[in-house]
Design goal:
The structure is a homodimer.
Chain A lengths: L1 H8 L6 H17 L6 H7 L4 H7 L3 H25 L4 H18 L1 H9 L6 H28 L7 H18 L8 H15 L6
Chain lengths: ~200, ~200
């Protein structure tokens, strides 16, 4: 179970022990917060010794950075692909919201760490992640502006509207659980319609 | 400074030492998370001894509960007053979003603790807070349903739409800071227009 989930979450990370530590880190940080978690806790959750952890990550901060950077890179790739998947601002935005919402629902434990533990990152690492976030915001903002230019959207401030669209998706990580009434895919479709309407488009 | 802020945040809490501890708790929990904060840290931040803390709060959990319950009671009162402040679903909803967003922006540090440290509450205390949250959601959902019935709103699922409206406001606590380009009031007005449009109403 754990092995296959970590491989699904981080297909690019090798070896498997490093992925196992990232998954143990996610679970520990999500449960008790970054600052209250020790490298000993994480190693223990991964069934490894603290010394074995340091073979893969020189510090707890390095492990958080690996989790955060990977989550942001995946989000950026997803948003970029979605934006390019359609020819009109309306359909590109629908695709972004559908996929970004579904990602935050399906990966809500990882997403919580990625979204809420940013300030625990050391300054240089924070800047790397902040660049990825700015790029995600830029894609969504440019798409809102393109939709305003084409007459599909009617918002007055694309920056605020883009942030509101992203907020809808990000906040899913806070409240979504396996007990939610809707599947990640259904929630994504419903939120996409709400977001399009928010931007002044007719979703159907 | 600290005295007046704590009096503004918790006008009903007496004596002033208890308010000072709540403010120190908010600042410590927001910075390092609930689990990584000790009662000694909090007492120190408030300029008091650990023994003096226990005079007012029997445990760290009791302090978190006081902060969380008060924040939720304030939110509920604000949402209830806003809902009753106008005669139509559109104007009531506008007022709710304006005030709820502004509250999360102005009180973003308190709101972060209130919104993101729920799971650290002991079970009984969690249930008290969960009841307050359900009541906030019920008011917003009933208003969405009333707007659908009156033909002002056109959403298909009032529960999901109500949650999306609340998400817009709650996520403000995550990203808002004193460096934000917009004042809490301006942000509230802009988000109210976005939320009304999301519900299928014409905001102007």
């Amino acid at each position: 179970m754990t092995m296959s989930l970590s491989a699904e979450l981080w297909p690019d990370v090798q070896p498997e022990a490093a992925r196992r530590l990232m998954l143990a880190g996610v679970e520990s940080f999500a449960r008790r917060g970054y600052h209250a978690t020790t490298t000993r806790d994480i190693a223990g959750n991964a069934g490894m010794s603290p010394a074995a952890l340091y073979v893969h990550f020189p510090s707890k901060a390095a492990l958080l950075f690996a989790i955060s950077r990977s989550g942001h890179e995946q989000s950026l790739a997803l948003v970029r692909r979605a934006a390019e998947s359609a020819d009109t601002p309306v359909e590109s935005m629908r695709s972004i919201v559908e996929r970004f919402v579904a990602w935050h629902a399906r990966r809500h434990t990882v997403a919580r760490v990625v979204q809420y533990e940013l300030e625990a990152l050391p300054e240089q690492e924070y800047e790397v992640v902040a660049d990825l976030r700015r790029e995600i915001e830029r894609i969504v903002r440019d798409l809102v502006a393109a939709g305003v230019a084409s007459g599909d959207f009617t918002v007055t401030d694309p920056t605020t509207a883009a942030r509101a669209v992203l907020s809808l998706a990000i906040d899913v990580a806070r409240w979504y659980s396996e007990r939610a009434r809707k599947s990640p895919t259904d929630l994504g479709a419903e939120y996409a319609a709400l977001a399009l309407r928010m931007l002044g488009a007719t979703p159907d």
